Amino acid sequence: MTVEVEASLEPGLGEALSQVSEALKARAWLVLAGNCETSYEGRAASGSTPGDRVVMVKPDGSVIVHGPKGFKPLNWQPDTSSVEARLDSDTLELRAVRRSPREILVIRCARIYYLAVLKGAEEGGFWLYVNEAEIRDEAMRDPVGVLGERLRFIEAEKPVEPGFIDALAEDEQGRLVVLEFKRVKAGEEAVKQLLRYVEALRARTSREVRGVLVAPDATEAARRLLERSGLELRRIDLRSLYERIKGRSAARRRSLVDFLG
Amino acid sequence: MTVEVEASLEPGLGEALSQVSEALKARAWLVLAGNCETSYEGRAASGSTPGDRVVMVKPDGSVIVHGPKGFKPLNWQPDTSSVEARLDSDTLELRAVRRSPREILVIRCARIYYLAVLKGAEEGGFWLYVNEAEIRDEAMRDPVGVLGERLRFIEAEKPVEPGFIDALAEDEQGRLVVLEFKRVKAGEEAVKQLLRYVEALRARTSREVRGVLVAPDATEAARRLLERSGLELRRIDLRSLYERIKGRSAARRRSLVDFLG
DNA sequence: TGTTTCATCTTGCGA
DNA sequence: TCGCAAGTTGAAACA
């Protein structure tokens, strides 16, 4: 194993400074818990008075400050040009600077509960993901299997006045079919967008144009608007789509179904 | 001080399990570094093969998994209904479940480099920030200072057909002025929105209607559309606005300018 | 580099 | 719960 760990419990600020400085120089992965205040100035200006924080400085220089609540960090700095540490009036001060946009994040810790340094951390293996484009591509590859209908696909990402149509196809009756894909439950907004595309297309052709929203589900308001607008909803099942798409990839791995029971 | 810390360096999995379980039960703040693999299934499906990770479970149940690079976590789970730990075939397994949307995140750690538990962490003090509403309010309070023009404000957040006008005012010539505020560089989208409001208002009144985009800057495309549409751009300076707004607040604190030098 | 679009967006507010 | 808008959004794709 290549990973080296070093940690201190409630270190003094002087001790902390030397460990932090060394970690930054070595481009190690630094995790620090302490009572800190933060200030940010750049695209906006913000700050927080002292509170308990977990501060992380990654090997690539990203700085992230978490409070005890929520998914989002309190402050951060993604593309730092420099991260520096020093002692300033009884605090350990970290300054993360970014050029373009010019931003500065200052973290001042009056007390440090815990400090850990990881050296030689490795990124690890690849990453699977099913996104909207993959759903669309799967539908184009096998319209009957995914949409339950024989369609001939004409174009994906077709530019039409208000933006881009996810996919344009032709059905067996020769009608144009505008397809809008959603990976999550579709709201009213998705229907409005689909409607804009359908209307834009109808204005430019004498052919009949259908609009189909492809999503796992739709909200009540979305369904009403579909109904009123004469548009269609095709439900898809993410799980089985995931299996179809990923099942084709060479490296097959255990499904989460195992865990879900 | 109320924060209690407990930490282990390279604990065995059994030892780690008991500490983790206890931390979860006590709703403590858990930070763990190890070699882990992750699987997520819910709104999407994703996963990563083993790699070095820092895993955080916050007192509110949020779970965040970071890899050694970048601002964004590899996996996360914001509003968990349950987080559980157990040993499974030589790994420490964490399962974070959320209902609605139904999602599950599974983290399996084969090795644990270190583990820290923080109890009694406090959110800490308030949070300063300049947002769009504050810019708007400051402009309404002092139109000459912020916009360089005498305006009489009629209404903020006025509902008009497509949505809400940020602010509606009247200029010295008695013309209506629709104001759209942006805290960051304005894109074409902001101009389109402003234009929709201006046109909606013109359709409902015989009075002359001006449209003013208030922003630190605008993209080239946005400026062209402003020009073509006969709308105006008023540039503002965030830094000085921040000083104006925050300077008024009772608790005056050191400016970041001190650090920027 | 700038601009646009996507995201397991998150978050907050309101109906 | 749904709809909507803002975010230091970040990150990727594209011109």
Task: Give structural notes.
The structure is a homodimer of 261-residue chains. Chain A is α+β, with helices and mostly antiparallel strands and 261 residues long. The first copy, chain A, has two domains: 4-119, Protein Yojf, Chain: A (Distorted Sandwich); 132-248, 3-Layer(aba) Sandwich (Trna Endonuclease, Chain: A, domain 1). Chain A is built from seven helices and 14 strands. In chain A, the strands form two sheets. In chain A, strands 1, 2, 3, 4, 5, 6, 7 and 8 form an eight-stranded antiparallel sheet that branches. The first copy, chain A, has a five-stranded mixed sheet with strand order 10-11-12-13-14, sandwiched between helices. The first copy, chain A, is elongated and about 80 Å long. Chains A and B meet through strand 1, strand 2, strand 3, strand 8 and strand 9 of A and strand 1, strand 2, strand 3, strand 8 and strand 9 of B. Chain A binds a DNA duplex (15 and 15 nucleotides) through strand 5.
- Oligomeric assembly: homodimer
CATH class of the largest domain in chain A: Alpha Beta
For the largest interface, the chains and their residue counts are: A-B, 71 and 71 residues
Number of domains of chain A: 2
Nearest-integer average pLDDT of chain A: 87
Q: Looking at CATH, which topology of the largest domain in chain A would you report?
A: Trna Endonuclease, Chain: A, domain 1
Morphology of chain A: elongated
Q: What is the CATH architecture annotation of the largest domain in chain A?
A: 3-Layer(aba) Sandwich
Gyration radius of chain A, to the nearest Å? 26 Å
Strand content of chain A: 35-45%
The class by helix and strand makeup of chain A works out as alpha+beta
Largest sheet of chain A: 8 strands, antiparallel
Uncertain spans of chain A: 250-261
Number of strands of chain A: 14
Distance between the termini of chain A: 34 Å
User: How helical, in percent, are the residues of chain A?
Assistant: 25-40%
Number of helices of chain A: 7
Question: H/E element string of chain A?
Answer: EHEEEEEEEEHHEEEHEHEHH
